[in-house]
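Record passed on here:
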Amino acid sequence: MEFKKILVPVDGSEAAGNALHYAVNMARNHGSSITLISVVDANDLLRETNDVMLTDEFMETLKVEGKEIVAQAAKDIPEEIPHDEVTVLGTPGYLIAKHAEEEGVDLIVMGNSGKGAFSSFVTGSVSQYVIHHVKCPVLIVK
């Protein structure tokens, strides 16, 4: 199987960093490109901003953190490996799966969030959502 387009969701966690390390090695071996995606979780933002009006300008300001995470992760990709950087605002699992489908991604390499069992049961995990909603292989890295 050939992996020409590898999608790596990043959130600044150690698991995401480990996933990126795997993706870089795979990209070297397969001549792949890497797309880093950061999804600023709208659900977390809405809880924190409860009564604040969410203007377009405010939403763009919120994306700054995601863009910083992507830019930091991009430093770990060698220059010879082509890569893109994407930052979006919304529901992480859904937007990762949507991006993979729209861009014809061949492989998703993502970190295991390390959520507790109860939290994963109640809210579901991003990796579980992605696994069940994409057609391409998904590699989960701890």
